[in-house]
Amino acid sequence: MKEGPDIALLGSLIGDPARANMLTALMTGMALTASELAAEASITLQTASSHLSKLEAGGLIRQRKQGRHRYFSIADDDVGNLLETMMGLAQKKGHMRTRTGPKDPALRKARVCYNHLAGEYGVQMLDSMKARNFVLEGKDELELTDAGRDFVTAMGIDMEPLSNSRRPLCKPCLDWSARRSHLAGSIGTAFLEHFYHQGWARRISGSRVVDFNRKGEAEFKSLFNT
Amino acid sequence: MKEGPDIALLGSLIGDPARANMLTALMTGMALTASELAAEASITLQTASSHLSKLEAGGLIRQRKQGRHRYFSIADDDVGNLLETMMGLAQKKGHMRTRTGPKDPALRKARVCYNHLAGEYGVQMLDSMKARNFVLEGKDELELTDAGRDFVTAMGIDMEPLSNSRRPLCKPCLDWSARRSHLAGSIGTAFLEHFYHQGWARRISGSRVVDFNRKGEAEFKSLFNT
DNA sequence: TTCATAGTTCGCTTATAATCGAACTATGAA
DNA sequence: TTCATAGTTCGATTATAAGCGAACTATGAA
């Protein structure tokens, strides 16, 4: 057996679907908790914990404790580069995740993406805000305009804590299919929490589905229908 | 489940030790037959065949038939880049193949690396030829000097077919540990075949060990001891 | 204190895939 | 033709690891 770097170890770490989903989720640059990553990969917390310790032992991710949370993120730029290279090649070779399947139409309509809204509703939010120049598209950032700031405030969301946070306000969630990016960032999070808080929607436990009720549907439409 | 490129598929293809060894072997740029790759990964031909069809289906390698042989090689530069990136990261993270183990000391002494000699003897050949300026080290190539050409001819090896081939004459076999590169290229192949042909050495079937006999040891030493 | 949330560890079950023996096809050599 | 080599396909075995329930620790909140 030849000497040399063991690419099999890296490969098998990335090669497990659950771990690949976690890593892909972390590629947004956000640090995520074990629970969030478990949800992302549709596995239980125990299983996720096992995967995360393997990923950490392999040097692909690192964690920092914060209170009773453990935030995981991509270990360093080298790992990020590798994952990006793999995504590029996978796309070029036509290897796409097909599990998206219409298993649950509710998932397509509105679902949680870590801490913000994805699915048709998520896309519609971003489209609508773009159309009204509430956000301007930069290179790979989104900028909230003054009009946008007013819009958010008018919804009853306090911009103070958001502006002071290190997290970007607006961010397109890089859906690798590109044509369907949705609103992430602290504004995205605030929106989702606002929906919960107003009693417009609730999260179905054990699933990523976000369930809007009658009133919620109406409010959402009045806010984001063009 | 998010849409996006399926890096898990690529990962799992590379993540199997047998396949990783095959891919690593192909990273020299040489096209290898299924049998050679099976030997490289220490698996049977049946198993190798199964792996190779998976790798091909995944777009990582391609084959071209030539008579009753099938030569496999890395599919394209993108795949090569990915593997190189992975090797670099694996090395940086300290993931080394440790199976090298002293399972068989004969393997360390002299073994086949596809079509040329590796192990201590392989290293010694290259060192010796460098010391006598038979080869000059270029950027990542090796150049055979006129003196080197004479040396090869004097051994009784016909340089004609080698010079006309598209294959590089001399090539360091990129052992990823870097400090132990040995002589590959068509000269490397010619040397090994010369040893066989002169009855100085024989290959132990079912293994990569090259067994030098008494006479072979002596001849080798007189040729390559400084 | 008690309760709740976040996460780990242990042990078990299960599913996947790597492996190889055996039988097959295909190409070339004698 | 026959024989040998190269490779594939099929079927069965086996080993590994993913997954989860249950019980545990740890941090924070009330």
Task: Describe the overall structure.
Two copies of one chain form a homodimer. Chain A starts with 6 loop residues before the first helix and ends with a helix. Chain A has 226 residues and is an alpha+beta fold. The longest helix of chain A is centred in the middle third of the chain and has 16 residues, at 77-92. In chain A, strand 6 and strand 7 form a beta hairpin. Chain A has eleven helices and eleven strands. Helix content of chain A is 50%, strand content 17%. Residues 99-104 and 174-179 of chain A have low confidence and may be disordered. Chain A has two domains: 7-92, Orthogonal Bundle (Arc Repressor Mutant, subunit A); 105-224, no CATH class. Chain A is elongated, with a radius of gyration of 19 Å. In chain A, helix 2 (17-26) crosses helix 3. In chain A, the strands form five sheets. Chain A has a three-stranded antiparallel beta sheet with strand order 1-3-2. In chain A, strands 4-5 form a two-stranded antiparallel ribbon. A two-stranded antiparallel sheet of chain A has the order 6-7. Chains A and B meet through helix 1, helix 2 and helix 5 of A and helix 1, helix 2 and helix 5 of B. Chain A binds a DNA duplex (30 and 30 nucleotides) through residues 16, 18, 33-35, 43-53, 67-70.
List keywords for this structure.
alpha+beta; DNA-binding; Arc Repressor Mutant, subunit A; 3-stranded antiparallel β-sheet; 226 residues; two-stranded antiparallel ribbon; 11 helices; homodimer
